[in-house]
Amino acid sequence: MGRGPADAGQIDVRLATASDLALLTALSLRFFDYLKATVADAFWEGAEPRADLARADFEAAFAKGDLVLIASLAGAPVGYLYGRVEPAYVRESPIPSMGYISHCFVRDEARGRGVASALAQAAERWFQDRGIEHIELRYSLANKAAAAVWTKLGYAPQRLTCRKSLRRTGNP
Ligand SMILES: CC(C)(COP(=O)(O)OP(=O)(O)OC[C@H]1O[C@@H](n2cnc3c(N)ncnc32)[C@H](O)[C@@H]1OP(=O)(O)O)[C@@H](O)C(=O)NCCC(=O)NCCS
């Protein structure tokens, strides 16, 4: 899955197993740190990473048969993708379910080499093999890299999440 002479090595994508729990937890905590540092959002203010919660999420994902992929570059694990099958967004739709990509993270030093593209391609095949015809994902508007990458990979914005803050101003 390499992308030519500029690549430092071969990209391999595989399904994760329970023996990857420590690795997945470590990668997802880095993802957490990245989002906390870059996404200007009230819900990230004061949020602290929790290894126990991250690990429990992956344990639950394995128990449900969700999609957990690990990508390696030149033999070293550098990224992961977590996705699942969800009910269609319109209950009455003749389309019963859709794919949802919840996390996609690539370590800093491995970015820009096609790792996320390889993860997305593998996820798309996994969903297609299950008869899924549409995949959704979300990213914050502040995450310019995510916007650029997902657009390049063919994910077009469809709906917008709107939020109004009800916080009281500081005046007594
Ligand atoms: C977003 C992220 C997963 C992309 O991973 P990556 O392995 O660097 O992506 P790829 O190398 O496969 O790039 C895919 C395409 O997007 C482009 N791209 C990658 N990073 C980019 C950036 N920061 N700005 C603009 N375009 C970018 C690439 O050039 C490539 O396009 P091409 O195929 O036309 O060359 C990675 O930057 C990351 O982990 N970011 C932090 C976590 C995050 O924000 N995840 C997304 C929210 S779910």
TrEMBL record:
Protein name: N-acetyltransferase domain-containing protein
PROSITE patterns hit by this protein: GNAT (PS51186)
SUPFAM superfamilies (UniProt xref): Acyl-CoA N-acyltransferases (Nat)
Domain annotation N-acetyltransferase: ranges: 11-172
InterPro entries the record matches: Acyl_CoA_acyltransferase, GNAT_dom
PANTHER family in alphabetical order: N-ACETYLTRANSFERASE
GO MF term set: acyltransferase activity, transferring groups other than amino-acyl groups
A Pfam family recorded for this sequence: Acetyltransf_1
Protein species of origin: Hypericibacter terrae
